Amino acid sequence: MRVKARRGETVTTRERRDLGERIDRFMTRASSRSTPTNTGIIERAPRPNRGSARGVTIPAGSEVDTRLQTHLDSETAQVEDRVEATTMVDLYQGNDLLIPAGSILEGYVSSVDRASRTDRKGELTIMFTRLKVNGRTMDIRAYPTQALESEGLKGEAERIGAGAGIGAIIGGILGGVKGAITGILVGGGGVIAATEGKDVELPAGTVLRVRFDTAVPLAY
């Protein structure tokens, strides 16, 4: 799917669904593990028979890791260019599933500043405005707080073979996380800037940690 995204080819709904089913099959053979966030919201590996969160609200300040589906480069990007990212794991509040893995965040490039002789650092700003879950679309206001490098399937293969658990399995299917991308800083409001005299480049597959700026009532 990452290769298709780089080529500009469309990733179909069926392909996304098949990937989700593969993850669920792995999860039935793995023990449960969860990681708390600052708001009491937790990200968990996908699991079968997930319940909906109708009537529940995603609190402002909640964060979720997403995988960027759109290649972005401050040298070529234009204001209002479309940006899409896909959530990597389920997001829960207690036992309520807020956002299933594989949900789509849509947004746009709200500003671009190309690297030049007088302004040596390139930067761009990303804002997400829509969340698509189970065929429903909700208005949101969210922005990235970190840009993380993807380790990919190869980087996780040995850990999966050693039975490292859910984290390794998720990483193996979707691509693990190495850490912050060198030479890039993410500031307030989704501003992503190069730290040296070059443009910002975010390949498809980059992991973006996204924060919800406002609360989102769920209706699915």
How is this structure best described in words?
The chain is α+β, with helices and mostly antiparallel strands and 220 residues long. It has one domain (2-217). It is 18% helix and 41% strand. The chain is built from four helices and 17 strands. It has helices at 2-6, 13-27, 152-161, 166-174; strands at 34-36, 41-44, 57-58, 63-68, 72-73, 82-87, 90-93, 96-99, 104-113, 123-133, 136-151, 176-180, 184-186, 191-194, 201-202, 207-212, 216-217. It has a six-stranded antiparallel barrel. A hairpin with a 2-residue loop joins strand 10 (123-133) and strand 11. Helix 2 runs antiparallel to helix 4 and helix 3 (152-161) runs antiparallel to helix 4. The chain is globular. The model is unreliable at 30-37 and 153-174 (pLDDT under 50).
Strand ordering within the main sheet: 4-6-9-10-11-16
Q: Helix count, per DSSP?
A: 4
How would you state the average pLDDT, rounded? 76
Number of strands: 17
Query: Largest sheet, if any?
Result: 6 strands, antiparallel, barrel
Helix content: 10-25%
- Shape annotation: globular
Distance between the termini: 27 Å
